[in-house]
Write a structure and sequence with these properties.
The protein is an alpha+beta fold. The chain has 2 domains: 141 residues, no CATH class; 63 residues, no CATH class. The protein has 6 helices and 16 strands. Strands 10, 11, 12, 13, 14 and 15 form a 6-stranded antiparallel sheet that branches. The chain has a 5-stranded mixed sheet with strand order 1-2-3-7-8. It has a 5-stranded antiparallel sheet with strand order 5-4-16-9-6, with helices on one face. Strand 14 and strand 15 form a beta hairpin.
Amino acid sequence: MALQKWEVFQNKATEFLNDNFNINFAMEGGFDSTTSEITARNKDQVITTIEAKFCPAQAGQIILLSDGTKFEFSDKSKNSSNKYTQEIIKYLNSNYSSFLGTNSATIPVTDISYSTLFNWVKTVYSEKNVEWIIASEQFDILNEEDLLFVPLNEIENYFDISVTFRRKKTGNIHIPGKDITDFEYDMDLVTKDYTIKRTNTKYLLTLNERVSNFNIGTKYLLSMTNKECQYYIKKKDMNTNPNVMFQLKLKDNIEFKGESFKKKYNL
Protein backbone atom coordinates (compact mmCIF):
# COMPACT_ATOMS: atom_id res chain seq x y z
CA MET A 1 0.00 0.00 0.00
CA ALA A 2 1.37 3.39 -0.99
CA LEU A 3 2.26 5.75 1.81
CA GLN A 4 0.12 8.81 2.32
CA LYS A 5 1.76 12.19 1.74
CA TRP A 6 1.99 12.99 5.46
CA GLU A 7 3.79 9.69 6.03
CA VAL A 8 6.24 10.43 3.22
CA PHE A 9 6.84 13.88 4.69
CA GLN A 10 7.59 12.49 8.14
CA ASN A 11 10.16 10.10 6.67
CA LYS A 12 11.73 12.74 4.41
CA ALA A 13 11.87 15.30 7.22
CA THR A 14 13.66 12.78 9.43
CA GLU A 15 16.15 12.09 6.65
CA PHE A 16 16.68 15.83 6.11
CA LEU A 17 17.42 16.42 9.79
CA ASN A 18 19.86 13.52 9.87
CA ASP A 19 21.64 14.96 6.81
CA ASN A 20 21.95 18.42 8.37
CA PHE A 21 22.87 17.71 12.00
CA ASN A 22 25.52 15.51 13.53
CA ILE A 23 23.10 13.69 15.84
CA ASN A 24 20.47 11.01 15.34
CA PHE A 25 16.85 11.71 14.46
CA ALA A 26 14.31 8.88 14.40
CA MET A 27 10.63 8.46 13.72
CA GLU A 28 8.89 7.40 16.90
CA GLY A 29 5.19 8.09 16.50
CA GLY A 30 4.24 6.38 13.24
CA PHE A 31 0.48 6.04 13.09
CA ASP A 32 0.07 6.91 16.76
CA SER A 33 -0.78 10.59 16.74
CA THR A 34 -0.62 10.75 20.55
CA THR A 35 3.19 10.58 20.47
CA SER A 36 5.74 12.97 19.01
CA GLU A 37 6.86 11.92 15.59
CA ILE A 38 10.61 12.57 15.70
CA THR A 39 13.09 12.25 18.53
CA ALA A 40 16.56 13.84 18.51
CA ARG A 41 19.28 11.85 20.26
CA ASN A 42 22.82 12.85 21.08
CA LYS A 43 25.00 9.95 22.24
CA ASP A 44 21.89 7.79 22.79
CA GLN A 45 20.29 10.42 25.00
CA VAL A 46 17.01 12.01 23.89
CA ILE A 47 17.56 15.76 23.90
CA THR A 48 14.27 16.92 22.36
CA THR A 49 11.26 15.90 20.31
CA ILE A 50 9.92 17.39 17.09
CA GLU A 51 6.42 17.44 15.64
CA ALA A 52 6.31 16.91 11.86
CA LYS A 53 3.46 18.54 9.95
CA PHE A 54 2.66 18.23 6.25
CA CYS A 55 0.50 21.32 5.82
CA PRO A 56 -2.26 22.17 6.06
CA ALA A 57 -2.34 19.77 8.99
CA GLN A 58 -4.59 18.79 11.84
CA ALA A 59 -3.15 20.07 15.10
CA GLY A 60 -5.38 18.23 17.54
CA GLN A 61 -8.96 17.84 18.68
CA ILE A 62 -11.17 18.08 21.73
CA ILE A 63 -13.94 15.49 22.02
CA LEU A 64 -17.00 16.73 23.86
CA LEU A 65 -20.05 15.39 25.63
CA SER A 66 -23.44 17.06 25.53
CA ASP A 67 -26.26 16.62 28.04
CA GLY A 68 -28.70 18.69 26.02
CA THR A 69 -27.95 21.92 27.87
CA LYS A 70 -24.16 22.26 27.71
CA PHE A 71 -20.94 20.73 26.43
CA GLU A 72 -18.38 19.06 28.67
CA PHE A 73 -14.91 17.65 28.11
CA SER A 74 -14.89 13.94 27.23
CA ASP A 75 -12.21 11.59 28.49
CA LYS A 76 -12.26 10.05 24.99
CA SER A 77 -10.07 12.98 23.99
CA LYS A 78 -6.47 11.96 23.33
CA ASN A 79 -5.21 14.95 25.28
CA SER A 80 -6.01 15.97 28.83
CA SER A 81 -8.03 19.08 29.54
CA ASN A 82 -6.24 22.35 30.28
CA LYS A 83 -7.31 25.92 31.00
CA TYR A 84 -7.46 26.72 27.27
CA THR A 85 -9.69 23.71 26.71
CA GLN A 86 -12.05 25.12 29.32
CA GLU A 87 -11.99 28.56 27.67
CA ILE A 88 -13.01 27.00 24.36
CA ILE A 89 -15.79 24.94 25.97
CA LYS A 90 -17.01 28.04 27.81
CA TYR A 91 -17.32 29.86 24.48
CA LEU A 92 -19.21 26.94 22.90
CA ASN A 93 -21.62 26.83 25.82
CA SER A 94 -22.22 30.57 25.60
CA ASN A 95 -23.36 29.92 22.02
CA TYR A 96 -24.83 26.47 22.68
CA SER A 97 -27.91 26.87 20.49
CA SER A 98 -25.72 27.62 17.45
CA PHE A 99 -23.95 24.26 17.75
CA LEU A 100 -26.65 22.07 19.30
CA GLY A 101 -28.42 21.18 16.05
CA THR A 102 -25.28 20.34 14.11
CA ASN A 103 -25.33 16.76 12.83
CA SER A 104 -22.36 16.12 10.56
CA ALA A 105 -21.86 19.59 9.15
CA THR A 106 -18.68 21.47 9.99
CA ILE A 107 -19.08 24.91 11.57
CA PRO A 108 -16.12 27.34 11.63
CA VAL A 109 -15.49 28.73 15.12
CA THR A 110 -14.27 32.25 14.54
CA ASP A 111 -14.69 34.21 17.77
CA ILE A 112 -12.11 32.53 19.99
CA SER A 113 -8.86 34.48 20.29
CA TYR A 114 -5.83 33.23 18.39
CA SER A 115 -3.90 33.47 21.66
CA THR A 116 -6.18 30.87 23.25
CA LEU A 117 -5.97 28.56 20.23
CA PHE A 118 -2.19 28.71 19.88
CA ASN A 119 -1.74 28.30 23.63
CA TRP A 120 -3.93 25.19 23.49
CA VAL A 121 -1.68 23.71 20.78
CA LYS A 122 1.49 24.65 22.68
CA THR A 123 0.18 23.15 25.90
CA VAL A 124 -0.88 19.90 24.25
CA TYR A 125 2.44 19.44 22.44
CA SER A 126 4.46 20.46 25.48
CA GLU A 127 2.74 17.67 27.39
CA LYS A 128 4.19 15.33 24.74
CA ASN A 129 7.63 16.89 25.32
CA VAL A 130 7.62 18.55 21.91
CA GLU A 131 9.90 21.59 21.68
CA TRP A 132 10.20 22.05 17.90
CA ILE A 133 7.98 21.98 14.82
CA ILE A 134 9.11 20.95 11.35
CA ALA A 135 6.60 21.64 8.59
CA SER A 136 6.20 22.11 4.85
CA GLU A 137 3.68 22.16 2.03
CA GLN A 138 6.10 19.91 0.10
CA PHE A 139 6.09 16.27 1.06
CA ASP A 140 8.87 14.53 -0.86
CA ILE A 141 11.61 16.88 -2.08
CA LEU A 142 12.64 19.04 0.86
CA ASN A 143 15.07 21.94 1.18
CA GLU A 144 15.58 24.80 3.60
CA GLU A 145 13.71 27.26 1.37
CA ASP A 146 10.37 25.50 1.85
CA LEU A 147 10.97 23.73 5.16
CA LEU A 148 9.96 25.39 8.42
CA PHE A 149 11.95 24.37 11.49
CA VAL A 150 11.23 26.55 14.53
CA PRO A 151 10.69 26.28 18.30
CA LEU A 152 7.20 25.38 19.43
CA ASN A 153 6.85 28.65 21.33
CA GLU A 154 7.17 30.64 18.08
CA ILE A 155 4.47 28.89 16.03
CA GLU A 156 2.06 31.83 15.96
CA ASN A 157 4.63 33.72 13.86
CA TYR A 158 4.62 31.07 11.15
CA PHE A 159 1.17 29.50 11.11
CA ASP A 160 -2.43 30.53 10.70
CA ILE A 161 -4.73 28.54 12.94
CA SER A 162 -8.39 27.67 12.48
CA VAL A 163 -10.92 25.72 14.51
CA THR A 164 -14.09 23.94 13.44
CA PHE A 165 -16.90 22.32 15.36
CA ARG A 166 -18.36 19.10 14.01
CA ARG A 167 -19.89 15.82 15.04
CA LYS A 168 -17.90 12.66 14.44
CA LYS A 169 -19.17 9.10 14.44
CA THR A 170 -17.74 6.92 17.19
CA GLY A 171 -17.74 3.65 15.20
CA ASN A 172 -19.96 0.61 14.65
CA ILE A 173 -20.26 -1.99 17.41
CA HIS A 174 -21.07 -5.69 17.62
CA ILE A 175 -24.80 -6.03 18.07
CA PRO A 176 -26.00 -6.22 21.69
CA GLY A 177 -28.13 -9.23 22.53
CA LYS A 178 -31.14 -7.04 23.26
CA ASP A 179 -31.23 -5.98 19.57
CA ILE A 180 -31.18 -9.47 18.01
CA THR A 181 -34.97 -9.72 17.72
CA ASP A 182 -35.09 -6.35 15.99
CA PHE A 183 -32.27 -7.44 13.66
CA GLU A 184 -34.12 -10.68 12.80
CA TYR A 185 -37.15 -8.63 11.76
CA ASP A 186 -35.00 -6.65 9.29
CA MET A 187 -33.12 -9.78 8.16
CA ASP A 188 -36.36 -11.63 7.42
CA LEU A 189 -37.19 -8.95 4.88
CA VAL A 190 -34.01 -9.95 3.01
CA THR A 191 -34.11 -13.73 3.51
CA LYS A 192 -35.31 -16.19 6.11
CA ASP A 193 -32.68 -18.75 5.20
CA TYR A 194 -30.09 -17.99 7.86
CA THR A 195 -28.85 -19.04 11.29
CA ILE A 196 -27.49 -16.91 14.13
CA LYS A 197 -24.95 -18.18 16.63
CA ARG A 198 -23.55 -16.40 19.65
CA THR A 199 -19.80 -16.62 20.32
CA ASN A 200 -18.82 -14.90 23.56
CA THR A 201 -20.26 -11.39 23.18
CA LYS A 202 -20.48 -11.49 19.37
CA TYR A 203 -23.16 -12.82 17.06
CA LEU A 204 -22.42 -14.70 13.81
CA LEU A 205 -24.84 -14.88 10.90
CA THR A 206 -24.51 -17.81 8.48
CA LEU A 207 -26.15 -17.79 5.04
CA ASN A 208 -26.23 -20.20 2.11
CA GLU A 209 -24.80 -17.61 -0.26
CA ARG A 210 -22.89 -14.37 -0.18
CA VAL A 211 -24.76 -11.15 0.43
CA SER A 212 -24.69 -8.41 -2.18
CA ASN A 213 -25.60 -5.68 0.30
CA PHE A 214 -23.98 -5.61 3.73
CA ASN A 215 -26.57 -3.17 5.08
CA ILE A 216 -29.52 -4.78 6.82
CA GLY A 217 -32.25 -2.24 7.32
CA THR A 218 -31.11 1.17 8.45
CA LYS A 219 -29.55 0.18 11.79
CA TYR A 220 -27.49 -2.95 11.11
CA LEU A 221 -24.72 -4.21 8.86
CA LEU A 222 -22.76 -7.40 8.21
CA SER A 223 -19.00 -7.69 8.59
CA MET A 224 -17.06 -10.45 6.84
CA THR A 225 -15.25 -13.19 8.73
CA ASN A 226 -12.64 -15.62 7.39
CA LYS A 227 -15.37 -18.15 6.57
CA GLU A 228 -17.46 -18.16 3.41
CA CYS A 229 -21.01 -16.81 3.86
CA GLN A 230 -20.47 -16.12 7.55
CA TYR A 231 -20.69 -12.60 8.96
CA TYR A 232 -20.50 -10.72 12.22
CA ILE A 233 -23.66 -8.77 12.95
CA LYS A 234 -22.97 -5.15 13.83
CA LYS A 235 -25.05 -2.21 14.87
CA LYS A 236 -24.41 1.04 13.05
CA ASP A 237 -23.27 4.06 14.97
CA MET A 238 -26.34 6.28 14.86
CA ASN A 239 -24.89 8.87 17.23
CA THR A 240 -22.05 11.31 16.81
CA ASN A 241 -19.66 12.88 19.28
CA PRO A 242 -19.31 16.66 19.07
CA ASN A 243 -15.70 17.71 18.75
CA VAL A 244 -13.47 20.69 18.05
CA MET A 245 -10.79 20.29 15.37
CA PHE A 246 -7.63 22.44 15.16
CA GLN A 247 -5.82 23.03 11.87
CA LEU A 248 -2.50 24.73 11.11
CA LYS A 249 -1.69 26.37 7.78
CA LEU A 250 1.73 27.74 6.91
CA LYS A 251 2.26 31.45 6.35
CA ASP A 252 4.71 32.63 3.69
CA ASN A 253 7.61 33.44 6.04
CA ILE A 254 9.39 30.08 6.11
CA GLU A 255 12.51 29.82 8.29
CA PHE A 256 14.85 26.93 9.00
CA LYS A 257 16.37 27.77 12.38
CA GLY A 258 19.07 25.15 12.30
CA GLU A 259 21.68 27.37 13.93
CA SER A 260 19.30 28.18 16.79
CA PHE A 261 18.72 24.46 17.23
CA LYS A 262 22.47 23.76 17.41
CA LYS A 263 23.04 26.59 19.86
CA LYS A 264 20.24 25.53 22.19
CA TYR A 265 21.53 21.98 22.52
CA ASN A 266 25.28 22.78 22.27
CA LEU A 267 25.70 20.76 19.09
